[in-house]
Q: What sequence folds into this?
């Protein structure tokens, strides 16, 4: 997700914040059922749980290798955590729609519309309301999954969230989740997976959220911490999806996206 333009703050003034989201009954039930099953069967190696603050506003900023990442983090986290997912996961009908909706609700997902511009900022505002309710929120600064295993440059939405809400950022390094559930796989397989929680980062020293320089510096610090935990090869570029149209090509080449 990304916002086109120079200043995220310019966009937030025109978009009303979403209602605060709190984990419901389905989430607590899913967490209590899924956690022992997943950790017992797949046996992920988890380190640094003591680094996660037990309360207050916390952003889990993680590398992104697989769909299963959004299950691995909530299952291994010592506290409840929420993240954003496509709204289509929550709007299906019939039995299949109910199963999908229940599953994503059980792992802490919050449905949002994906896209650029105001849609992207609205998604970040949803994350903001989650944090302002003193909850934990997970985000992938790369924006989308890495298909080649490299760690791409971080988008500045994570810094905007941290600087706007005052949340601490806990870097997360995932290893092996791409082997557990490669792109196109329908079910996870057993593989050596590790989830490492790093020491919390206070990015307030970099400046205010409206400063592009502050957002960039804060994001780079966060990505450096993720790299130390994940051990991935660095890609000196953004993880851009191929442009689907001429308009998208122009946006990528000319408009200098804010890269959320």
A:
């Amino acid at each position: 997700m990304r916002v086109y333009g120079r200043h995220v703050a310019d966009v937030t003034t025109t978009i009303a914040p979403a209602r605060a989201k709190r984990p419901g009954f389905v989430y607590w039930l899913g967490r209590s059922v899924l956690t022992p099953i997943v950790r017992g069967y797949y046996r992920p190696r988890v380190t640094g749980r003591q680094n996660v603050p037990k309360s207050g506003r916390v952003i889990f900023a993680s590398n992104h290798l697989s769909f299963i990442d959004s299950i691995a983090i909530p299952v291994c986290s010592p506290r409840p955590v929420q993240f954003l997912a496509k709204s289509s996961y929550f709007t299906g009908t019939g039995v299949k729609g109910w199963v999908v909706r229940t599953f994503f609700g059980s792992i802490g997902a919050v449905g949002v519309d994906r896209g650029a511009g105001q849609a992207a900022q609205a998604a970040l505002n949803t994350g903001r309301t989650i944090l302002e309710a003193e909850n934990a929120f997970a985000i992938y600064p790369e924006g989308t999954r890495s298909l080649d295993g490299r760690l791409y440059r971080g988008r500045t939405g994570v810094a905007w969230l941290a600087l706007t809400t005052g949340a601490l950022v806990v870097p997360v390094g995932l290893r092996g989740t791409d082997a557990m559930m490669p792109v196109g796989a329908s079910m996870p397989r057993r593989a050596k997976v590790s989830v490492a929680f790093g020491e919390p980062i206070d990015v307030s020293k970099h400046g205010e959220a409206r400063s592009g320089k502050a957002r960039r510096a804060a994001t780079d610090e966060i990505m450096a911490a993720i790299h130390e935990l994940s051990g991935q090869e660095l890609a000196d570029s953004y993880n851009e999806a191929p442009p689907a149209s001429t308009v998208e090509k122009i946006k990528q080449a000319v408009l200098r996206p804010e890269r959320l």
Notes: Residues 1-18 have pLDDT under 50 and may be disordered. The chain is about 40% helix and 10% strand. The two ends are 5 Å apart (CA to CA). Residues 8-239+246-254 form a domain with the Glycerol-3-phosphate (1)-acyltransferase fold (CATH 3.40.1130).
